[in-house]
What does this fold into?
Amino acid sequence: MHADFRTGARDVIPVLLGVAPFATVVGIAAIDAGLTPMQAIGMSLFVYAGSSQLAAIELLGETAPIVVVVFTAIIINLRMVMYSASIAPHLADYRRRTRAFLAYFLTDQAYALSLTAYENDAVDDERWYYLGVATPISIVWMVCTVIGVVLGAGIPESWGLSFAVPLVFLAILVPVMKDRPRTVAAAVSGVVAVALAGAPFNLGLPIGAVVGICAGLLTEVIRNR
It folds into this structure.
């Protein structure tokens, strides 16, 4: 096993403690919304994006038009475009086929941990570190989705598994906030996204991301001057 793969697998262990209940919640929600077990598992396999899956599942449970469901999922996942643009320079030396394979495993957690390691020059082979982070996430995600599907709605709400969702994102956000521009970007995007939580098609998330990026860039320009 490559040394950087082992390092990535070790670094991701704390994050997996949040991914496991997150995936379980997705499996439970899918069954509760009326999806079949195969549909629920297939959704985690092919969509592989927790926040958009939860939004789509909620809309499916409300019998929303399929166009609205798909559009909402796409809007929420637009952040992956920003992730790709940010991490692409570190993987530019690999073949296109390799980059396409790695793209499937891109998640919030894999992005945040990998980018932090790359910026700190903590790895020799970016590809193997990325896979070391992403592979355990994908395995835990699928296994715990199946667990959620099998358990269905049998887990009592008092267990508070749904609280794992924001904890996962907080766990990957805090280590990245290493300077003022990034902190401002995170704070502004969070405030805007919460303020626009009721916007149609969940547009509050991408709008918050764009406003946060602009605020971070402005802060950096002011600091440099």
User: Anything to note?
Assistant: Residues 3-154 form one domain. The longest helix spans residues 126-151. The two ends are 47 Å apart (CA to CA).
